[in-house]
Amino acid sequence: MEKIELIKPDDWHVHFRDNEILKAVVPETTRHFSRAIVMPNLTPPILTGNDAIEYKKRIENEIPKEDEFLPLMTLYLTENTNKDELKKSYENGLVFAAKLYPAGATTNSEAGVKDIQKIMPILETMSDIGMPLLIHGEVTNQEIDIFDREKKFIDTTLHFICTKLPDLKITVEHITTKEASLYVKEGNRNLVASITPHHLALNRNAIFVGGIKPHNYCLPILKREEHRKALLKVATNGNSKFFLGTDTAPHFISDKESACGCAGIFNATYCIPILAQIFDNENALPQLENFISKNGAKHYNLNINKEKITLIKSSQNLIFKKYLDVNEQKIKIFDPDFLVFWEVAE
Question: Where are the strands (E) in the chain, listed by range?
Fold first, then answer.
């Protein structure tokens, strides 16, 4: 048996949803994480500071008493966002960041941005006050192949924003390509990226080989093996510009296994053991703490957590629970296509 002690991690990209799903999934994150940035793409979305506070209260009501956890709230940017309201909400501590969804890019993004020029005054305000911008980095033009949409966004929209506003603190969330890893690595000091465990674990074969696998369908979609390896390289080499954002995204099985086939992978439950195994496989365990516990906090100018967690490696592989029960429905828990020998000591 092998043990390692790490600073308790943070998750810089979480979907808690709302109502009965929220009640079920919040403890799956608060068990192992100290803080999380909570996504605002509800129905209706979180558009104001008051919306964020009400949502935060609902989250806090579901945090188990034994868990110390801080949800960091975000605003959903639209072309009608009021920059004065945004500034007031940020400076009063009601929200931590704002999220840019290109309209139609992912779940509940229909109210997102179609014309980046229309929100440039808002982004300028964010740059002035030091408010972080979180970006789902894909174009939504129907003529652009789904596997090329991240690269196209980088070449056009992201490069435009970075050039116009070099002081804006930007996180390109859940990157999936070698082009994204290279652009962020070589970009300005305020540009960083989050990476999910499923994009480190899987390539696009996991969706299509042997039949359609709807539970591995996510947006941005899984890419070729060369892209997965590029993400592995930047995640495991200690570069401080890259950190964990799980993009854990619960959907009922009935919604995943349907004509819709909703995008999203629910990975909160076994995220840390999976990442430990990935880093172990790459002979990079000494870099795991940077990726999950330090790099994100440094980018957001937050204190590093003081609490620790212990990971244990056993000769027996971890047996994953398959589902999370939500009343009479179920959410599929992410299970990678390899054995995991690490677990978090309770």
Answer: 2-7, 11-14, 35-38, 70-72, 74-76, 97-100, 133-136, 170-173, 191-195, 242-244, 308-313, 323-326, 329-332, 342-344
**247 catalytic residue (yes or no):** yes
pTM for the structure as a whole: 0.97
Of 155, 247, 325, 335, which residue is the catalytic one? 247
d(CA 199, CA 248): 12
Domains of the chain: 2-344 (3.20.20.140)
Quote the tokens at residue 164. 């116009």
**Which two structure tokens, joined as six digits, stand for 163?**
């050039």
Q: Are 168 and 224 in contact (CB under 8 A)?
A: no
Summarised one tens digit per residue, pLDDT across range 167-208 is: 999 999 999 999 999 999 999 999 999 999 999 999 999 999
193 vs 204: CA distance, rounded Å: 21
